[in-house]
Each structure stands twice: as C-alpha cells, then as structure tokens.
Design a protein that fits this description.
Blueprint lengths: L1 H20 L13 H5 L3 E9 L2 E2 L11 H4 L2 E4 L4 E8 L2 E11 L5 E4 L3 E8 L3 E8 L4 H8 L3 H8 L4 E8 L1
Antiparallel strand pairs: 1-2, 1-3, 1-9, 3-4, 4-5, 5-6, 6-7, 7-8, 8-9
C-alpha cells in the first residue's frame, strides 16, 4: 500500500511539474507590421535620385543641385495624405496631397507624381521608380532645384526613368 501511495504521489508530482513548466502555445512575438504601418511610422528623407540609371550628382549642369533632393522630408499619414518639405533655391517648399497603395502594394500613387513602382521597401529604405514624360519634367526640375530644360537636354526630350531613394 505504501508503494502505491508513493507511485501516486510521484505521478502527481510529475504531472504538476509538467503542467507548470509547459508554455502555452501562443507566441508572444508581435505580428509583423503592415506596409501601411511601416510607411506611416515616421519621416522619410531624400537620399538619391537616379535619372536613366545615372546618379544626378554625376550629371554635368545638374549635379550641383543634387543635394536639393537630400533636403526632402516626406511624411505619409494614416489618413492617406502626405506632406513633402524640401528646400529649393534657398526657399522652403511644401507640398501636400494624397497617397495610396495599389491592390497588391507593389506601387504607390502619390498625388502630383502619379503611380510610382516600389523597387525596395523595408522599414529603413523606400526606393520608388517611375517613367516621367517630358510634359511632367517641370516637377522633377522643381524638386531638384534646376531648370527643367537641362533635364530635357540630358534625356534628348524623351521619357525619363526616375528612381527616388529614401531612407529613415
């Protein structure tokens, strides 16, 4: 009888130890943030612009103004509005508008710029690409703080493949 009680107590002890030591199966890791949460989680800073795969800093007549893009501070908001602030020709410029992801979040439509393809998107890097036709080249000239005719000369008046790189 004594050994039966001992085995019963031993079994209860192991059961209790097993129950106390087991984690529940729920993971305590937070869910991955959504793309909307990532893009709206802070300010993006202009890093580099490529026109037809060439860094604008290396284009004669344009490169001297490449740092204008680096003054760009872009904030996407959860209400699908954005604010872009940059300095051009010593003056602070401010643009506001709306933005939205396309259905598979491979592109973003930004009022004033149209649809921009997302090349790279991480919590710290956002690289956007687009083709800009000559009739819209004025906006790129304004962002870069240069005469748009210089871009037209560089591109021969053809569409420009633009890549804008942003960092946190």
């Amino acid at each position: 009888m004594h050994s039966k009680n001992f085995l019963l107590y031993l079994a209860l002890l192991f059961s209790f130890t097993f129950l106390v030591s087991c984690d529940d199966d729920d993971d305590d890791t937070p869910p991955e943030p959504t793309n909307t949460e990532i893009i709206t989680s802070g300010e993006w800073k202009g890093d580099k612009v490529l026109l037809n795969s060439i860094d604008v800093a290396n284009i004669p007549g344009i490169g001297a103004n490449a740092n204008t893009f680096q003054t760009l501070r872009l904030t996407f908001k959860e209400d699908n509005t954005y604010n872009a602030i940059f300095e051009a020709n010593g003056q602070e410029q401010n643009f506001e508008g709306t933005w939205e992801f396309n259905s598979d979040e491979s592109a973003i439509t930004v009022e004033s710029l149209g649809e921009l393809d997302i090349k790279t998107f991480t919590p710290d890097n956002l690289d956007l690409t687009t083709s800009i036709n000559p009739s819209n080249i004025n906006l790129i000239g304004e962002i870069l703080g240069i005469d748009p005719r210089l871009i037209a000369v560089f591109t021969g008046g053809n569409d420009v493949q633009a890549e804008m790189r942003f960092v946190r």
